[in-house]
Structures
1.
Amino acid sequence: MTRLKYLVLCGLCGVFALPAQAEMRPSLSFSGVTGLIDMPSGDSQSDGTLSVVKSQFGPIGRTTLSFQITPRLSGSFRYSSVKDWFNPPEDGITTYSDRSFDLRYQLTSEGRYVPAITVGLQDIIGTGVQSGEYIAATKTFGDRVKVTAGLGWGRYGSYGSIGAPFGDRPTVDFGKGGNLRTGQWFRGEMAPFAGVEWKVNEQWSLKAEYSSDAYIEEAENRATFERNSPFNFGVEYTTKTNMRLGLYSLYGSKIGFSVQLALDPKKNPRGGPRGPGPLPVTASAAAKSWGPNWVNDRGNQTAMRDQTQAILSRDGIVIESMAISANRVHLRIRNTRLDNAPQAIGRTARALAATMPSSVSSFEIVAMAQGVPLSNVVIRRADLEELEFAPGADLAMDQRVQVLPVAAALPEGAIRTDGLYPRFKWGLTPYIATSLFDPGQPLQANVGVRLTARYDIAPGWVISTSIAKPIYKGIERSTFPSDSELPHVRSDANLYTLEGDPAVERLTLAWYAKPAPELYSRVTVGYLERMYGGISGELLWQKPDKPYALGAEINYVQQRDYDQLFGFRDYSIVTGHISGYYSLGGGYHAQLDVGRYLAGDYGATLALDREFANGIKVGAFATLTDVPFDTFGEGSFDKGIRISLPMAFFTGAQTQKVSKVTLRPLLRDGGARLDVEGRLYDTVRPYQETDLDAAWGRFWR
């Protein structure tokens, strides 16, 4: 390396001593991580940010999903493709496709004199083609300029090396992939990189960088493009919807572009939910008096229930039963519209304050789901009146509310609402079914319509179905049919997609019950999911005031025919799991499932999720079983990312609809679990104390 390069780097490091005056919003690189153009930076996204970046230059394309897991830790999942990689073609394919996973940790946040410093690991469990490590430091000057300098290894140490201070980088046989290559980390040639970003105004930014990635495999060995220069330049435009568009000159030979989408779960794009506002709290002195004999008058109590129902109807809350005594009301409700449990509790409490006689001092509000009561939320009427306009009303009310177990049986004298059972509900909606990561065709989709129907026979007894009819068939037969050595319990999923027209995805009879105040049960029989039918039974123990729960599930299932109508194949199995659930606080949840999977293998699945108060959930899971990595196949073990996005967050409407996405690098047979609908933990936990506390900010709204 020349003396000039050393002087440039020293100059960049020297200006880090200057104080910053304002913060510039971190941008995202071509690799989808916080960075410049093709190089990473030391800053990080705001806590909880979920981002997607699509980038392309020359033959190289990348699509990256990143999540700021904590204020300092972030993870990224990337799908990359390089055209003209195979020459001559292999199996008719010329494009190389690769999946990779990154982790970044910010060692120091940017301060007055200290830069933000981040250490990053790229492609830690993939094939290693994209692997590299780095330490990057970033400092902001004024409110317009941000400077980055760093040191890289692996890919990031392949151009302009200044030595290998930690020894040679060993060659690792990645085998089937999926294994950590810790022996390579920060080993081999080390090279500097640097760059600068200038924020012209609120919309436009300019970038320039010196790249330490030589693209040895892509440019030198495979000759997919020419790398003529280490310098990259770009211009980016930020829209009002947090989308950033970029156009770049890369490596002296190619023009590139990127589209960056960032979602901050803590900032509602609509500014908050729409819909009718809450009622003011009616003081008990102003509540209607029914005379001294109202306690024994069923007609008066029925009128109170009907008045309360009239108020709650505008929020989609249905009263299932009401039991009233001289100083207490026990109300069981079904929330059909509001996406926030504390908000449903708060709206119900206000309605009771407006309709209950003055002597009723305690409100017991019991949420129902699948016909069973979940918990008893007890609110003192005096607290409701006292705290409505008090400073810190949310926290104060949360501290005074009690969340107690509740038995399935109704209190003595309860008045049921007529006409709730049986009830029928149906819907017809469009759907998009995707097929991802097939080597020959990495992105395919079917578009069609889905008919769903539900018939509640009685409390806890439900018949439901889902029937899909594809209209546009964009998913074709897989380029590489399953070669799994295990029973094909999941790896033939593509055949179900191809032949199911129309497809009875699900047709079940389910019975939900509550054998004890802290015990829940479910039995489901029928066509449980699109690939399996049979019977599934589950028990869940959950105390309302505890952050943990225990569950057990056992299933006997048989594989369905590919057409997803009413026939079966000759593969059947008994599966089951013991599950432990724990709320770690701060919106973090852990789940451990131990048992037998669909291919007959035994093992465990660990899942970690982060859930925000508005219902957005991002998580990851991994399964290890007794199937050897070589037998499992590419990827070595099952793993993936799952995301839940409530539609209320984006539309502002009162709705409980949720869009769920699960991304697996590969769909193999090891560690595969039955996908039965209505599992108990997700049904029960929204109205347990831990989850109510986390979302309590909307109680008064």
Note: Residues 3-263 form a domain with the Porin fold (CATH 2.40.160.40).
2.
Amino acid sequence: MERRTRPFRLLGALGLLGSLLLSLGGPAAAAPPPSRPATGPGTNHATDDPFTADRTSWWRQDRFGMFIHFGAYSNLEGEYTRPDGTVCRDAEWIKRQCKIPGAEYEKQAATFNPADFDAEAIVKAAKAAGQRYIVITSKHHDGYAMWPTKQNRWNLRDHSAFDPHRDILSELKKATDAAGIKLGFYYSIWDWHDPDFADPATFPRYKKRMYGQLKELVDHYDPALLWFDGEWDADNPTNRWSRRDGADLQAYLHRLNPHLIVNNRVGKRGVTDGDFGTPEQEIPAQPVDGQLWESCMTLNDHWGFAKYDTHWKSPATVVRNLLDVASRGGNYLLNVGPDRRGRIPQPSVDRLRTTGAWLRAHGQGDAVYGAGYTGLVAEPSWGAVSRRGDTLYASVASWPASGAPLHLTAEAPFTITGAEVLGSGRPVEVTPSGDGYDLTPSGPAPDPLASVIRIGITPPKAAPAGNGTGLTVQSWANDSFTGPPAVTTVDPTVNKSYRFDGSPDPKIPAAHFSTRWTGSIQPRYDETYTLTTVSDDTVRVWIDGKPVIDHATPHEAAVDKATVSLKAGHRHRIRIDYTERGGEAHMKLLWSSPSQSQQIVPQRQLYAD
């Protein structure tokens, strides 16, 4: 993982340009990137909508996972004694931060013997915590592989004191399958050990081995998820990974397994990279626009094991973080770092067990699993509110004094049909008040970590689902909508990721084209909708003839939003103008409202001219 918290944003133009200069798949050279192909094969890499796809359904429902940072660095347990006797402290970055010479780091790795690694015990700890998937480091930045790779000998089988007949990833796969838990692998792109990584002349050789290792992981262990890291621009050694590299790798992985879920660090953490964003050691203040997301956090101050680090998060912090994440529509990936013998520290186990006990008590896990952003109410100061269907779950971290109310601010009209505190059996008085409702529970808080009020609601009435077939789409072989369109058809949705190698049609060039969608959009609720576009290079959107989004200056992948009042069942006229000016090509149209969770506007609600 990183040495610092990085803002959850797109990389700037200069960083992207710099990384593009050295990245294009054959022998690399410090020269301008080649132009896009003269004609486009029509490849659209957006095969589904991660917000609604069956492929990502388990991940969206499970919400809570275990991260495991474990590797050759764990053998040092966070401390390195220099030749002069001074001690340097770090964890998974200890080789680089403590400037350990390569030969010395290899020498210590040869003594690494995690003989006490117990896959069944780890899975048991995850189950006890209520965690429904596990992501373990298969290779961190030090390049050390935690499985018997055939690509090199810098791995747990060939360079350690560990039993060469054991394979901890195979053991973990068997244990997770038996327990009904999904397994994923972390893989670092940045490699401090491979001599071919930093040299532009040899970087393609490194990529070939990397592809080979990833194919081994997919073929041998059938992971549900691949979690990349180490994609950022860096030196010591120089990191040459580019957006083009990420696009190529993502396409390759989906050819290996179309059901794989991949995080956005496969590219450059852009909104168009992978299936989900990865805010690190932070929780976004609201749902993330245009992309699923997962917040990864440590239980103390390090990802890998550090024997001196006793700064543990409290169980209350863990539970409340999980509730905040779920109420904003995200996932929570909580890390443990096994010691040199492969054992999860007892303070981690204790906190995991307490979290799981809270989730199991009184059905409180319903506030997390399968729940998400409500949209119907504003986030309160006293806790978090999530939604599952016609039920809201108000998780109260600051329980009110006797007789004092908890106020819910309504973002759209709805009716509360009843409320109860889970685990207490005590009534909750519900009173319309100002811009929403007051909830007045009786008695003390039933749970010191967080107490959950289950609220039955009658949501706003939805119009019947539409029967649309999509929007009329015209594309030109230029970026100015000049002359007759080269192709006219119907697109079921506006969900295009041509990346570097595609266009709307084989007759359209892969650079400098324009596309116009026209027709009608039909909402199911009388509400204020947020229309969200994800585009690269320009986009303009009109609703009922009124411009609502106008980002006509060429840009890298960007999110634009507009709020519009739409009438349920009414067909509102829509027009979208998009141009591709060079580089990547993306265009997506999403919507959300208090009653509609964020998604690509579906085909059934779109009508062609």
Note: Residues 4-36 have pLDDT under 50 and may be disordered.
